[in-house]
Design goal:
single chain, mainly alpha, two-stranded antiparallel sheet, 2 strands, about 5% strand, binds zinc ion
């Protein structure tokens, strides 16, 4: 019996990856991958810069809540135990970013149209521009 180097869970001595957290148990076992192994890829452990920037843009524009959710997801993705988990969280951040941006554009366009209609009305009624 051995213990996971990352989370300390008890694992098989010849296990390549920890079944509990998915951490790679080191280079000493390279070349001994088994087909029945869970085979979780390691997470990159890096911040997804693109999604982070996008989330911040959403945060400072009109979609604060979605921006915050995206930032949390990007940060969680950085600490994800496996690449699968990381991908899932980055995707979640991306969905929030898309909704935030599309929603922001719709709100901007609607308010622009609304203002234009009001200006048009005021202009034709002679309140302004007369
Ligand atoms: Zn572990």
């Amino acid at each position: 019996m051995a213990y996971c180097k990352k989370c300390g869970a008890q694992i098989d001595g010849d296990a390549t990856y920890c079944p509990s957290c998915g951490a790679n148990q080191g280079e000493s076992f390279t070349g001994m991958t088994f087909n029945n192994d869970v085979g979780l890829d390691r997470a990159s452990g890096k911040i997804n810069i693109g999604q982070m920037i996008w989330a911040i843009i959403n945060l400072v524009s009109c979609c604060q809540i979605l921006g915050i959710v995206s930032i949390i997801m990007v940060v969680l993705a950085k600490d994800a135990p496996s690449a699968q988990e990381e991908t899932k969280k980055v995707r979640c951040a991306m969905i929030c970013n898309i909704i935030g941006t599309v929603g922001g554009i719709i709100v901007t366009v609607l308010s622009a149209v609304y203002s234009a209609v009001i200006l048009e009305y005021l202009g034709s009624s002679g309140v302004v521009f007369s």
